[in-house]
Amino acid sequence: MKHQIKVEPQGTILYCEGGSILLNVLQQGGFMLDATCGGRGRCGKCKVWAESDEWDGKKEILSCTTAVNSDLLVTLPVQEKFLDRKSMLLKTHTFPVELNLTKKFLKVKKASIEDGKGDVERILAELKLDRQVNLAVTKQAMEILAKSKEGITVVFDDQELIAIEQGDTTNEFFGIAFDIGTTTVVGSLCDLITGKVLVTVSATNPQRQHGGDVISRITYANEGAGNTEKLQEEIVACLNEIINKLCKEAKVCTKHIYCATVVGNTCMHHLLLGLNPTQLAIAPYVPVVQRELRVNPEEIGLKINKQGSLYVLPNIAGFVGADTVGVILATGLERVSEPTLAVDLGTNGEIVLNSGHKMVACSTAAGPAFEGAQITYGMRAAEGAIEKVEINNGTFKLKVIGNSKVKGICGSGLIDLIAQLLKHGVIDPSGRIVEPDLLSSDMAFLMERLRSNGKSYDFVLAFPEESLSGEPIVLKQKDVRELQLAKGAILTGIRMLLREVGLNMTDLKQVYLAGAFGNYVEVESVLGIGLFPAIPASRIKAIGNGAGIGAIKALLSDQEKERAELLAKNIIHLELASKPEFQDEFIQSLRFPVQTSVE
Ligand code: FES
After folding, report:
1. 488 or 84: which carries more pLDDT confidence?
2. Of the residues 45, 75, 105, which one is the last residue of a structural domain?
3. Protein residue with its CA nearest to atom 1 in ligand 1
4. Is 42 in the pocket of ligand 1 (CB under 6 A)?
5. Do 287 and 315 touch, CB atoms closer than 8 A?
6. How far is the CA of 235 from the centre of ligand 1 (A)?
7. Which of 47, 199, 284, 394 lies most in the core, judged by the most C-beta atoms within 10 Å?
8. Residue 173 host element (H or E)
9. What CATH number does residue 54 fall under?
10. How many domains does the chain have?
11. Which of 42, 57, 75 is where one domain is finished?
12. Any ligand 1 atom below 6 A from CB of 41
């Protein structure tokens, strides 16, 4: 029997067979719902409000565990496609331009009986060069020359003439650098003359509806014929939406974007290119391709100048991707002479160590907790997100993005919160939220925020009158465990890389911290949760979106592209799971420190 589902606020009507899973019906109907746990009923992100004859009034249900057995009226949560500027981590700054891609304005002689040269030959004669010219440009030559009384602009990529344009467009010369994260996609529009980053936009990766981590994306890709192509279509559509938004904001025409670069973890890289990611999840975890690729944008449907090029940075290994190469480009990690570490705190945590003699890298399945996902009230760094927590002199203070009522908590806020609760004994080193009577009497202001849920305690961050939904916003025991797993995974990776090169934590002279929360994270809080035991705060530097900066550097410089290619060839990859000590290290790394490690 068929049922009708009316979807609000869009007013769309969908039909499905009885027993269909609501999440699948909504997704097939084109609605993007977060499904961080891949539809396993664990993350709570696929919740919708629904009315049915089966129950009284409206109720909130998990769409991934609801079988449709009657007609439904479903109200979807408001989805922000583009994220708040606060979450855009690339400052507007300028990078050096060293490109073989050039534009030049020319006045071309008219055709004449005496001369007899073809249109393309007259253009090349004016340039006093003999370049390759492709068919697409050749086809445009006659019309553009006929229309351009005042002259034409030519675009060269190294030895090839890639475009001819009417009039003088030499100042309209742009490129876009993309950082495709498992959770967030960032695009930066750059001026190819000045090297200035003009606008940066970030958006949610639409593939999140198939799961929050790379493994669930790979699983989805394998579940049905055409799923890899579907994932590719979703990410390309997302990049095209970012292109449109960037162009609109900067008042730039898409045909004047001649190049793009992409960094991302190896799985995101494969899905963008429509490459089957299956092998990434099976030992020996090899990618289809590691090397850099130059792709015609039309081949994957990217809407920039058709004759432009897309440069996809190289991967290091199956789980250490081009995003790590980007972080190294951003930090100059390969050029240091003392032990230095770079950590990218994403859903897939990637770590690179330069011992001073050799470079080793690994990846750890940190999960999306650092990005505010898989946390009961976790959210991106957008309006309404708690981004900072302070417990001081008997007061509990929150800093909320946009100074609005509280909607949830983002990654930097979560790290701050847990560091503060550890410091004040509300969470013990095992990660347990303690009973109120274990707190000292001067902590009464925190005691009143501890609420029993029967099994454990929740810590109230915002009371109903302080929250946007009118519901209390709480930190649950399971949320602490999520962060604990994430920090445990990263710390295990760091320890094992150090062991591989015979160094200790105290030998590290500098640590670069890159990640979704970038410059907004408090280094003291990162130390507070024990991510880098025994390292003074002065040696830790938060660099923001390192992978994105690397993508911009490669966009603007051919030398940086060559650097990326060399890096990917020379970094030694360490497969953590194959090491016998991995489990022990991981268990040890889960504990929180008793006190913060400061200088
Ligand atoms: S709870 Fe439904 S997708 Fe996670």
Report:
1. 488
2. 75
3. 41
4. yes
5. yes
6. 21
7. 199
8. none
9. 3.10.20.30
10. 2
11. 75
12. yes
